[in-house]
Write a structure and sequence with these properties.
rod-shaped; mainly alpha; single chain; 85% helix
Length: 323
């Protein structure tokens, strides 16, 4: 992967949260981050090491850009649930109260009917007793009294049962309300504990982030110091290299100048030697010609020199000296 690969700036808008923070909703971002992490810079070069740090920072920034809106959205969801829970508790309490009010007339009516039935039975027995012949024996009278007392006791039992039913209904209502209150208190306790746990988790997360940031800053500082030291050493080596190259160039130039000077001196010396040799060669030929003129033509030395000089200057037509 090319080292120019960059991760696009991540931004989660509020309206995206419901579709992103669900099962596998963040896979696209993870794939993008994994693709970025697949790059393998050359760790042996400064550029590669700097690139590794840059990639790590981009992953951290991407995590923060995704996590913070998600945490905010989660908090929003939890806050939104609280009114619903409270409203449901209020609704159930009201429904129970309404139900008890609906049942109260029937409960009271049933109890009243039981009392009336008992009272009617008691009156029937009383009428029967009045119609009895006065001649009934003592046993019949005693039976009547016994039955009358039994009816009274039954009436009292009906009244007692009705009161007990009312008391039981009231007790159940109070117990139900107490249970609702207890559940509400328990729910508030659970929510408080959950809130405290979230706060502890958030504090721990912030602490980890601060620690990670401090460790990263320490690593960055050490890496920066090492980078500065490497750059300093590289600068020193570069200056030394330039100095060596300058010295080598100056030496080459001096060697070239010296070689040119020696070559020029040799050329001049060779030229002078050639000229000297040519002069000597001419002198030898001229002396030989002079000697020949003196010996063959009987010329004097002065005359022979004058003839040779005239011929050398080209003053004698069609005659020249071959050197």
């Amino acid at each position: 992967m090319s080292e120019t690969t960059e991760l696009a700036v991540l931004e989660i808008k509020p309206e995206q949260a419901p579709t992103l923070y669900v099962a596998n909703g963040l896979d696209a971002y993870l794939d993008q981050i994994r693709e970025l992490a697949a790059e393998v810079p050359d760790v042996t070069t400064k550029k590669g090491r700097d690139r590794i740090g840059s990639l790590a920072r981009m992953v951290g920034s991407s995590k923060k850009a995704i996590e913070e809106p998600g945490r905010a959205y989660l908090k929003q969801l939890k806050e939104a649930v609280k009114p619903a829970e409270e409203e449901l508790r209020r609704f159930t309490r009201e429904c129970d109260t309404i139900r008890d009010k609906i049942l109260a007339p029937r409960t009271e009516w049933d109890a009243e009917q039981d009392r009336i039935a008992a009272e009617e039975q008691m009156n029937a027995w009383h009428t029967e007793a009045l119609e009895m012949n006065a001649a009934h024996d003592k046993a019949a009278a005693e039976k009547f009294e016994s039955d009358h007392e039994l009816a009274l006791l039954m009436n009292k039992d009906f009244d007692r049962e009705r009161e007990e039913a009312r008391a039981e209904a009231e007790r159940q209502r109070i117990a139900h309300e107490d249970e609702i209150k207890r559940q509400a208190i328990e729910q508030e306790r659970i929510e408080a504990e959950q809130k405290q746990q979230r706060e502890r988790d958030e504090a721990a997360r912030r602490e980890r982030e601060l620690q990670d940031r401090a460790e990263q800053e320490k690593r960055d500082r050490i890496a920066n110091e090492q980078r500065l030291e490497r750059e300093k050493q590289e600068a020193i080596e570069e200056e030394q290299r330039k100095a060596r190259e300058q010295a080598d160039r100056i030496k080459r130039e001096n060697d070239a100048k010296e070689a040119a000077r020696l070559a020029e001196e040799k050329r001049i010396a060779d030229e002078n030697a050639r000229r000297a040799a040519n002069v000597q060669h001419r002198k030898n030929i001229n002396n030989q010609a002079k000697a020949n003129l003196i010996a063959s033509a009987g010329l004097t030395e002065e005359q022979a020199i004058a003839v040779i000089t005239a011929i050398a200057k080209g003053e004698v037509t069609a005659i020249r000296i071959t050197y």
